[in-house]
Amino acid sequence: MAGGKETPRQKMIGMMYLVLTALLALQVSSAIIDKFTLLNQSLERANVEAEKTNSNVVRSIQATVEKSGNRPKDVAVFTAAQEVKNKTQQFLASLEDVKQKLITKSGGPNEDKTGFANPNAESEVEELMLGGSKNGLGYQLKGLLNQHVDYLNKMGEGKMNFKPLAIDPKDDPDFKDREQKNKDFAEINFQATPLVAALAVISQKQAEITRYEGEVLKHLASKVGAEDVKFDKIVAMVRPESNVVAAGTKYTADMFIAASSTGMIPTMKVNGKEIPVDGEGMGKVEIPATPGNYDENFLSKRTFKAEITVNTPAGPKTYDNEITYFVAKPVISIQSAALSALYMDCGNELNVQVPALGASYNPSFSVNGGSHIPGNKKGFVTVVPTEREVKLSVSSNGNLIETVPFKVKAVPRPEIKAFNGSKEVNLKMGETASSLRSLRLEAVVSDESFKQNLPKDARYRVVEWEVSLAKGSRAKLQRRVNDNSANLSDFAAQAQPGDRLVIEIKKVQRLNFRDKRLDVPISASSSIITIPLN
Fold it and tell me: Which of 244, 355, 373, 533 is the 20 to 30 A CA-CA neighbour of 403?
């Protein structure tokens, strides 16, 4: 067919036909029957909408002819359009009648009227469509289909070249199945064919007839200017240099008149890609604002080509323009308890926001040099460093905004303090030998900032130590302790003034934000505690 680019509906119908052809070649099962049913329903719905569109074209022709004063030549075009519409409706009704005969022949609808009593009926379809001596409705259908296509080609005044819709496989250059080549049109479509498949075949032919009809009506409409660009909607437009103006500066903009036609839906493209156009003829431009090379004002220049194509009596006409816009570099705002650096193997909670993006901010994160845990609020993320430097990449809607580097600090080592009951042991003056009957060791966070900022990671505990009661270079008693406290009554019983308690710290652990226990390295200088006894 000579008619230019196919519409989305035409592409859909063509795809449905390919699916229908493929399904006909498959062994029939309940699943295939269901697919035929759905396919037929989709085709029938599409046909109803297409007929509405074609009726609107006829009404548009009538309105244009009346506005032009009912000139004889224009009236003749309208009469031809009415004839095409009426004859096609009659023909589509005759195809619908064939479908009803098939349904009746196969047992009619089911009890709840939602389907068919026998959707996979085959013999009934063959009997009706093929007949005893090739005199069934399928052979009549072939002639009627091709006759109506010839009629539409004629009404297209040589501008159309519609292909016949009912041809035998041997005459179809696109038909590749050699085993089926010897069948005729009726046999290839209705022999051993379930009811729902036969209905889908006829619905597809109705769809093609409706499409052909639409092409003819468009041709006739162009003869009386029914598709002329007539601007009936005029609005005042303002194009500002910027929608955001700083205090103390001027708001500047261009003001002009924009006109559109409610009776015509143009085709619009951005950088060669078609964009959606609503019923008012307004296109929706959406371009991801990807980052780029920013200038000293943190702006990146962008351009796109805008194209609008409208139909005129002389044919399609395209208007284009190159549009310039600027992408501003978003400023990332990171709130954290400790921004100067993150802590190794800790849950560093960050609140990452980009105020310039407003409600469109849809963040996602990736971390190099560690891992991350998404928060339960937009922009919140917990970064867990495993290397000395971490890079946090911030994206929104899949577009990278910025990569922010962080230095990583080692977790501060705790200070070990000894307590006699609730009182801290006096390491300088010592303790009386008889009073030191219990001893508790506490790992105290030495960095107050770390404790306040990451309290879930600042939980230390002494879990293994060794205590000795010594006099001179000789150990009188010695014990290994696997807790942070120990009863030393036996030590007190043997202790004498001048003795000393020597504590060697063997293991200290930290409970992190995941409640996981991690060993904490202890320096040699802080691993020994000596308590003089008086």
Answer: 244
CATH number reported for the structural domain that contains residue 347 in this entry: 2.60.40.60
Flag whether 3 is in a domain: no
Q: Which domain holds residue 208?
A: 8-223
| Res. 27: pLDDT tops 50 | no
Mark whether 49 and 140 lie in a shared domain: yes
User: Which of 359, 377, 409 finishes a domain?
Assistant: 409
Residues with Cβ < 8 Å from 323, sequence gap 6 or more? Answer: 303, 304, 305, 306
Distance, CA of 189 to CA of 169 (rounded, Å): 10
Residues 182 and 207 reside in one and the same domain: yes
Instruction: Give the Cα separation of 417 and 519 in Å (integer).
Output: 18
Q: Which two tokens stand for residue 511?
A: 């409970």
If asked whether residues 353 and 492 sit together in one domain, one would say: no
Same domain, 27 and 174: yes
In angstroms, the first-to-last Cα distance of the chain is 113
Give backbone dihedrals phi and psi of 74, rounded to 5 degrees, phi first: -70, -40
Residue 324 in any domain: the answer is yes
Is residue 57 one of the residues assigned to a domain? yes
Are residues 434 and 379 both part of a single domain? no
pLDDT at 56: 94
| pLDDT per position as a tens digit, 124-166 | 999 999 987 788 999 999 999 999 999 999 999 888 889 999 8
How far apart are the C-alpha atoms of 415 and 411, rounded to whole Å? 13
Give the separation between CA 415 and CA 479, rounded to whole angstroms. Answer: 22
207 token code pair: 């769809």
Kindly state the average pLDDT of the residues 87-93.
94
Strand partners, 380: 351
- C-alpha 245, offset from chain centre: 34
Domain finish residue from 294, 328, 362: 328
Same domain assignment for residues 118 and 184: yes
Nearest to 323 by CA among 292, 300, 302: 302
Using the structure block, give the residue that is written with the tokens 């064939």.
98
Q: For residue 228, is it within any domain?
A: no
User: pLDDT tens, 237-267?
Assistant: 777 776 655 555 677 888 888 877 766 678 8
Contact 450, 400 (CB under 8 A): no
Task: Return the amino acid letter for 152.
Answer: L
136 Cβ partners below 8 Å, 6+ apart?
A: 126, 127, 128, 129, 130, 186, 190
pTM (2 d.p.)? 0.43
Hey, which residues does 259 pair with through a beta bridge? 234
Q: What are phi and psi of 67, to 5 degrees?
A: -65, -30
What are 386-421's pLDDT values in tens digits? 999 999 999 988 888 889 999 999 999 898 999 988
User: Per mean pLDDT, which of 217-221, 471-475, 524-528 is the most reliable?
Assistant: 217-221
Q: Is 448 exposed, middle or buried (0-12, 13-18, 19+ CB in 10 A)?
A: exposed
Chain centroid, CA 68 distance in Å: 49
Same domain (yes/no): 156, 41:
yes
Structural domains of the chain, count: 4
- Classified as helix, coil or strand, 498 is coil
